[in-house]
User: Fold these one by one.
Assistant:
Number 1:
Amino acid sequence: MRVELLTVGDELLLGDTINGNAAWMGRRLAERGVEVTRSVVVGDEPDVIVAAVEEALGRADAVLTTGGLGPTYDDVTRDALAKAAGVALVRDPALEARLRERVAKAGRDLQPMALRMADVPEGAALLRNSAGSAPGLRVELGGGVVYALPGVPSEMRTIMDEVVLPELAAGAGPLAVARRTVRTAGLWESVIAARLAEVEAMPGIRLAYLPDPAEVKVRITAAGGAAQERLAEAEGRVRALLGDAVYGTGDESLASVVHRLLGERGATVAVAESLTGGLIGAELTSVPGSSDTFAGGAVTYATSMKHRMLGVDAGLLDEHGAVHPEVARQMAEGVRDRLGAGYGLAVTGVAGPDPQDGRPVGTVYVGLAGPGSERLVTAPRLPVPGTGMEIRAVIRRMTVVHALELLRRVLAGVAPEDVARDAREDREERG
Amino acid sequence: MRVELLTVGDELLLGDTINGNAAWMGRRLAERGVEVTRSVVVGDEPDVIVAAVEEALGRADAVLTTGGLGPTYDDVTRDALAKAAGVALVRDPALEARLRERVAKAGRDLQPMALRMADVPEGAALLRNSAGSAPGLRVELGGGVVYALPGVPSEMRTIMDEVVLPELAAGAGPLAVARRTVRTAGLWESVIAARLAEVEAMPGIRLAYLPDPAEVKVRITAAGGAAQERLAEAEGRVRALLGDAVYGTGDESLASVVHRLLGERGATVAVAESLTGGLIGAELTSVPGSSDTFAGGAVTYATSMKHRMLGVDAGLLDEHGAVHPEVARQMAEGVRDRLGAGYGLAVTGVAGPDPQDGRPVGTVYVGLAGPGSERLVTAPRLPVPGTGMEIRAVIRRMTVVHALELLRRVLAGVAPEDVARDAREDREERG
């Protein structure tokens, strides 16, 4: 079963919107054993959509479109599908009644253009949209099938999960390909690839490296017979070769692993954030139920707040500025003590775009105060990619990962010396 | 000048990576008057890449590819371009020397497969990559031109800005299309579209609505003669019809507007965050130089921390739980006073996926304490899209926008009654 995706919308070609829908659909389909072989974006022009649908059906069994089903005049996917099928657009009375009812219930007047959402290519099946107004459509076309879904992510996802995926998975047959993603932090892509050369050489096994700021996901694919068994074998080798750098698999985030390790010890963490401005707290609280292990945080972005909120020595701040290893240590101790947490985790550094207190962009110190007398400060040297505002976002994101990774390693029982050594090696690696 | 984008990589089809490169390129090209007419993603297969390049050149003047130029064996764009051009891949000695030098400087051994990056289709021009190892390539092909760029965003962006955009813009001619994006918060897309019907009817003017959680960007496009003048006229009408809901244009973020308004008054804000866990602080500190107007923040995710860190009345928390308007008010006052800021901004609520203290997912209170006796609490009722973990991210993001928007309106001098009324209307709108 080969599937192509067709995303419709000028806003995607103009880059006002990133194509998150295609990524989500690709993942969900792969999980069900359905292969996406091509993904195309076109603008809001009926003729271009018709041509793209026909080309795609020449290569694939099914085409999934998103976008262009809304109420406004730039929503033209319905028109294009009618044209491709050589049928008329007809108003569906039941759909019209449902639209009028929804709007009346909200005490509003129906905008005349909203009735466009009740128009359907003759013969198309309606796919129930329990998350919004416009239903999806299924149109049989020249031996293939087109599923047209709304562009609003929550509506697209709902119709995918409730209708389209069950239908496609029924026709997909048993999985001939098995995939798993192993997540790592703290090692460079090139170092990982060199270490995994022997796994690359295993028959029927392919590796792909998906780098994110300060993280690398290694996707293992096993194709052919006994795919699951060979996948398990390859994963075992990958884990053995990468050791402590592996923190999880699949959708497991670094934050969720940290919460699990804290929970196992009955411990909590409090965070003190300077350059990240709240991102570490946001990452930790992205996990539901995190209030059991996340005590809270202090965002001390301005230098004076490091003294005021956390008790960092004012003389130290005057003499060295805010970007200093001892400041990171005192911030970690301060937040741990003031919030009554088991661990205190702190970051201070320069996110850019300009240097600060004479320190270059990318200078970052991560401080960790443990429940006893344990104190650690690491200085991951972050590469400075690109220029301007992009630096800032990447450095902040890398800092979040390095901080969570330091805490994870300490909780996982890697000796402090090893954490410090890894940080040093990391620095040399970056030259 | 028509340009198509071709992004190469299994990870994009599988949804492990979102196609941010295509969005960035589309934006940059549109700014220079170059129209992207189609954007295609294919996997790491040479034959498929060859076919996609040839199809694209049949429709467009230039094709920009990203991905597949790295050192590993799944990087096959070089091979595909050589095949499409009917030439051999030849090793470039200068490029090889540069690779060896880079690696030696970092004190590492050259991985044999890294030498693949020195292979070039015969006759291709090298595009300098000042941000990494693999250069871009320019290949003339059947009357058109292919620019091949690395998939690493910082490297792709550098080569685009330094080489490709200047070359393409030189051939693009004067801008026949003018575009502007007006940014709004707090109004629904359907309400905005209904209000702007008369602008839609202006000749040569097109509107597009780009909804984000709790924000809508309205993109105005003017095509044909005197595009700039007509764009200005349309923007004036849009602003008049949307009034206070417009907070900025183009890339201007809500956070940057809040900082500007605070700066004009010489005021600062401190934030107290519950369900957002640090996202409001992160958003405010995404703007460089924000330490002048952002005092700091307290992340009081656990209920007990609202009392401990902010002095919220313990009896109130015991009786009503953390999700209550009076809790939001006391959090705002508490953080303002403890951090010595002019304004205190606070949020408490239920991000999901499960209800909390008997309150449904999406219940949110935003508290604002002004420098004098001003106190405001709003209760934006947030629609609950989709299910499970997605809810959580969307509700948190909407809460950030509603909080910043409340502060913006107060700073911009909209009377408190109006803010409260807008919040009520907003609620009715959502039925």
Note: Chain A touches chain B through 107 residues (CB under 8 Å).
Number 2:
Amino acid sequence: MFTIAVDVMGGDLGPRVAFRACATVLQNHPDLRLILPLETSLHIDAQKALSRFSDRVLIKPCQSHIDMADKPARALRQGLSSSMGVAIQAHASGDAQGVLSVGNTGALMILSKRLLGTLGGIDRPALATQIPTRKQPLLMMDLGANLEMSPKQLAQLGLLAISWYRARGIMKPSIALLNIGKESNKGPEDIREAGKLLHRAAPECYAGFAEGDDVFNGDLHALICNGFAGNIALKTTEGLADWLTTMMADELSNSKSLRWLIPLWRHTIKRIEKRISPARHGGAMLLGVCGHVAKTHGKSDEKTIKYALEYLVKQTKTADQARLQSEFDRLQRGLNSPE
Amino acid sequence: MFTIAVDVMGGDLGPRVAFRACATVLQNHPDLRLILPLETSLHIDAQKALSRFSDRVLIKPCQSHIDMADKPARALRQGLSSSMGVAIQAHASGDAQGVLSVGNTGALMILSKRLLGTLGGIDRPALATQIPTRKQPLLMMDLGANLEMSPKQLAQLGLLAISWYRARGIMKPSIALLNIGKESNKGPEDIREAGKLLHRAAPECYAGFAEGDDVFNGDLHALICNGFAGNIALKTTEGLADWLTTMMADELSNSKSLRWLIPLWRHTIKRIEKRISPARHGGAMLLGVCGHVAKTHGKSDEKTIKYALEYLVKQTKTADQARLQSEFDRLQRGLNSPE
């Protein structure tokens, strides 16, 4: 058996949509158990929604939950008795092999750092997600946890990405820094400096700078940037993908000769959405903490939570966390060694 | 009559593709004249390619051209006798009402500043483009000229965008700052500070922060960001748009029941590409200089140059440059006045 702790209390749409997502994922994975920290008022609802899986769902009482609007300070004060705190503690104690939260990102960051600890050398964990591309998925990080980063922090993020892939058996992932030009003299000073550090610490994996239009090529395994750039890039593409799929549907409805194709076309649009959807609906991972922590955004609906939970199950099953730590430690020494 | 100076010498594909683009645009605009600064070796080619419009094309001799790889210092040394320098001088002297260059962006920036001057209060011009959205086009700036900007420089860019719209008769454009959250406490310090300045100087136009997924909504007239963020956002969406249109074509060819639709579908794809293409193929404007200066990227093909030239013709005809300057001066005083 295999256990994930799910904190469903902080989402905008309420925990009930999450119960339905949990039921689907439990159905798909007969070896999966879930720990659900819930305030008492929700226990009966949860039991009803998950009654078919009662032997694989453990409801844990908690006293509060952290709202999206709550300041991180509140997370520290009320954290341990909140649904999020109880979920992370279940992972820290070994009862669960991973945590998914639909809640406040800042609070998740603080509580994960405190209860799970971070990899040596990482000050603040980063948010990462794998986005689909023309070929292999691309691990993009940071997506908003660290708005500004020093060259060394950017380089550490690169080494973390390499370690993440090595923990999954991919020994020579190709990683790049997001920049506004490919030549080594392009872009801001801190990115150029980070490039030098990565070239020194991991020359076999570092592929130099990549530009925005390289994101979907599929030639890279990971793309490293500060949280501001990553958030902007990801959200802008989400906006465009939404618009383009609407536009295609409109094109068909407005055309007399094509309108009758809509039923056929709907099927194709569904398949395209499915191909690009893990990026748009799936969650983000908190990398740099000692554990498997993932989050979905506050507006997550049933589909989003289901994707994120499926993804976390897969990641947790296929990755060797001890390997990630040892690979990262080894690469870090290369970063810190004198030239 | 109405004249544009076109510098076609610096592009990667050579000047001949530009001659064809010029011919199409001359055909579409019977009141348009072009000034083409060209090295002597190209005069005969140009005369042949544009023979139908010989009464509306003035070929001006120049002694050199600035390559894409040239350092800006070279632009200053050889600038005035280069094709780019001759084109900008034609605008500065009033012989042309606008300039389009297929050449080096850094050199265009330096020579435009020197020969045309900048609006009072603007240190460095910005690159801007209008991208299509669900509703009205969105003026996005900066796109790469200024990688980092102070709060005051960001705010000036916002005022420049407002002035740009007012010079076109739109008195209350809605402008926003690109950020990673909508709340006023989100994002980096410099953006929050710029927000305060814009709120003070232009409360009737400033709409607060916008996120990446708002870019294509069409609710805004202008979106302001530093050149790093703007470049990343624009190029990432270009990459996704390319991939999505390929993916749709692939979906059809791979489906037995849909394959026969490809001829019909090709028509729809073309129309979608046309709707989104001004952003992908059109040029960028250099805003903040005293004049109408536009550029296309070095890899520009015939279609790209044609779009950019058409766009410049339209912008130059519809905008009142004196009005832009006076609006900007007035707004700037609001920015500089004590609180």
Note: Residues 2-118+290-296 of chain A form a domain with the Isopropylmalate Dehydrogenase fold (CATH 3.40.718.10).
Number 3:
Amino acid sequence: MSHQPLPPGATIGIVGGGQLGRMLALDAARLGFRVHVYCPDGGSPAFAVSAAHVQAAYEDEDALARFARDVDVVTYEFENVPSRTAEVLASHRPLFPGARALQVAQDRLEEKNFLRQLGLPLADFAAVDGRGDLSAAVQRLGRPSVLKTRRFGYDGKGQITLRDDVLLENALDAVNRQPSVLEAFVPFVREISVVAARGQDGAFAAYDVTENRHANHILNTSTVPANLSSEACVEAQAMARSIADALGYVGVIGVEMFVVEDGGRERLLINEIAPRVHNSGHWTQDGAETSQFEQHIRAVAGWPLGSTQRLARTQMTNLIGDDVSAWSSLAAEPGARLHLYGKAEARPGRKMGHVNRLLPGN
Amino acid sequence: MSHQPLPPGATIGIVGGGQLGRMLALDAARLGFRVHVYCPDGGSPAFAVSAAHVQAAYEDEDALARFARDVDVVTYEFENVPSRTAEVLASHRPLFPGARALQVAQDRLEEKNFLRQLGLPLADFAAVDGRGDLSAAVQRLGRPSVLKTRRFGYDGKGQITLRDDVLLENALDAVNRQPSVLEAFVPFVREISVVAARGQDGAFAAYDVTENRHANHILNTSTVPANLSSEACVEAQAMARSIADALGYVGVIGVEMFVVEDGGRERLLINEIAPRVHNSGHWTQDGAETSQFEQHIRAVAGWPLGSTQRLARTQMTNLIGDDVSAWSSLAAEPGARLHLYGKAEARPGRKMGHVNRLLPGN
């Protein structure tokens, strides 16, 4: 792999045109890059801020090839890029993060086996391909436990918690009888994430650990620094580094973890890996020396990583659905840094924007 | 004039597609606006980061009308928008800053008369329309003095310093025998600027006064805070406010001033007004709560102005021409925030980017 950095004026191809692609495009432009976006959806938020875009299906191999040949490097904003899509793109131009990261992050079972092989802590789990598996898995892991599809789950979609009153048949229906994983229930006291980057030269830089609160399975706030011992923070960042190193990763990675109280000690369990910029890293736009979006562009362009130094205590709050109707009071709030995604319609559960607030203290 | 703020999703039209338009577009996008850019030049830096653009002459009234009808408000990135262009645009959509600001800023003589009528301090001057005027003006203002064209001067173009050895005929040639102004020479000890904004509601907010150093008549560095007494800073900001109020100004304005030592006291003389975001305000992108670009968009969109609070001592350095070839070492410099404009060719004197550095201390 060449470590020759891409010069300003080079073109970065981004697969996926949502808000993450949009914010990647904005920071890429600030560094002097051109951006092309590939997305099947008309009116994608990233289209409006990029030099060119291709609106075509992820299965359209001609369009993929044309897109790839027009850019110097390809990255993506979401982990569900089909493997054949990734293969076609990678046959023309360097693809970062690489195919292995996509493969691991797309399949919950693959991801858990990968983490277990690395010796990293995670909740016990069992593969579930049907009624027999589920019955045996529930026998072993007990209730409550959580049944999740292996693929395409996000924001609480494709999962069901098996409490005492849930029939196995109904649980299988809830995951559409897809290949799934049963996870032991984790009685966590809080959720945290590590957002970090690995460069083409293997350099690694993590941001301060972030504490995350969800509402209706969707991230609501991320606050940094997390309420977590410094030992646990160091451990969390080291786990993210093991993952990134093992994947030969290039770019920003998000690693979600649970914190469990274990006899007065904080124990960490990895929940999942996102091979991309991460919602819990949006605070870095205003609270860190280098935003996660710039950092990702630096990594995929072969530039040195930027400083992940935190500038202030920061809280990021997502604006979900109708939350965005508060824009005029947020615009008037001293110190609130407003980031809106240019989405036309505020559907329930849709991420419309976020606001970063710098908090007093360090 | 309506003070109803433009909602996110509205479209802001920017006339001029250079780096100022580009940085306006990037910050407008962050606030959820769509941006359309109008510029006659193909490959304009702002085109690559906007939802749509019109490449047409400033005299193409059909194109201007179509552009204006597609947007909700029109602003511009440079003061030399022809008055007829401004008139056509303003007949379709609100234009901010308004026609009066353009009129004053486009013509050095008009500008000086405006400032004098406001009772603001500036160097003595005389209108020069030919040999007779120049001879009388030099008689009165002495040598050295500076002959500048009334219109279209920037970065030292269209001006000549009349030292003892300059013949009047050669001076007139140097300004292409255009209508001009002779200015008394100002033995300044430093150059400063006030970058400030006025909202649609008349609110006014100034950034901390910036100290500017030029090289070859082009801005080289801006450092904030300026080396200037707090009394003089307050006076400088008050002068900017008088100007903005008198013009019924909406948007960000830059006011360049000279500092003269006068018996141990700092005296200020206004040099010129820029009715737009200003190169000496680029430090606000990393050193202030609200960047000048966001601030300008807030003003033209009828939003409340953001906080102009400075976050740190900051120095902005322009990357002119070949300076940009240092991009890879700048990318690796801890704490250097790099802003590149996506211009293809690094011609001598061309502004290719800038770098902001936060400095120790307050």
Note: Chain B has eleven helices and 17 strands.
